[in-house]
Amino acid sequence: MKLQLALDLVNIPEAIELVKQVEEYVDIVEIGTPVIINEGLHAVKAMKEAFPSLQVLADLKIMDAGGYEIMKASEAGADIITVLGATDDLTIKGAVEEARKQGKSIMVDMINVKNIEQRAQEVDALGVDYICVHTGYDLQAVGKDSFEELQTIKRVVKHAKTAVAGGIKLATLPAAIQAQPDLVIVGGGIATQEDPRSVAREIRNQLNQGA
Ligand SMILES: O=C(CO)[C@H](O)[C@H](O)COP(=O)(O)O
């Protein structure tokens, strides 16, 4: 199981400092949507230049103009770019087509998709690389998580890799590991902890043991 660190509540220098501390334990660094809103795709470029051996994910949550937005994120150096599962198939097809041209990967974020089972099968058939179940901040705040949805996509997705995101921390990691996703995404569970390096190391150990 791979580990993605989501960076949401930092500026570019803070993001780079944090990744320096945890670099050896993570596979993918996510430039979160708030960072891209604040700093633009420069944040993706800066991260890729600072850590060329890490994969960088641009959490654009694309909803329209799939091909164009994938092209711009690719130019900035993103390896993986997110598209929303709630959008139209045409947008996802455009994104997949452009990603193939650029040698990049598409992650479909299933945030707020109501019929996860059906939509996961549909987006899987469109040739995306990852399908991610995700409980966003607003639903985390009322106690929701994505572990049941993770089991659902594990059952029906045949081609894409599976991922889970949303409020995952050391205490809830076992529930994620139990469902055996390909990728676990952790933001605040590492980034806002007192000792991000030791937490990242512990998460890495548990993922290795659970694999
Ligand atoms: O995409 C996001 C919010 O929309 C976050 O990056 C994702 O939820 C992971 O962060 P956290 O572990 O802090 O929830």
Automatic annotation (TrEMBL):
It catalyses: D-ribulose 5-phosphate + formaldehyde = D-arabino-hex-3-ulose 6-phosphate. GO terms for biological process: 'de novo' pyrimidine nucleobase biosynthetic process; formaldehyde assimilation via ribulose monophosphate cycle; L-ascorbic acid catabolic process; one-carbon metabolic process. It comes from the Bacteria. Pathway: One-carbon metabolism; formaldehyde assimilation via RuMP pathway; D-fructose 6-phosphate from D-ribulose 5-phosphate and formaldehyde: step 1/2. Keywords: Carbohydrate metabolism, Lyase, One-carbon metabolism. Its EC number is 4.1.2.43. Residues 2-203 form the Orotidine 5'-phosphate decarboxylase domain. GO terms for molecular function: 3-dehydro-L-gulonate-6-phosphate decarboxylase activity; hexulose-6-phosphate synthase activity; orotidine-5'-phosphate decarboxylase activity. It holds the Pfam family OMPdecase. Belongs to the HPS/KGPDC family. HPS subfamily. This is 3-hexulose-6-phosphate synthase. It comes from Brevibacillus centrosporus.
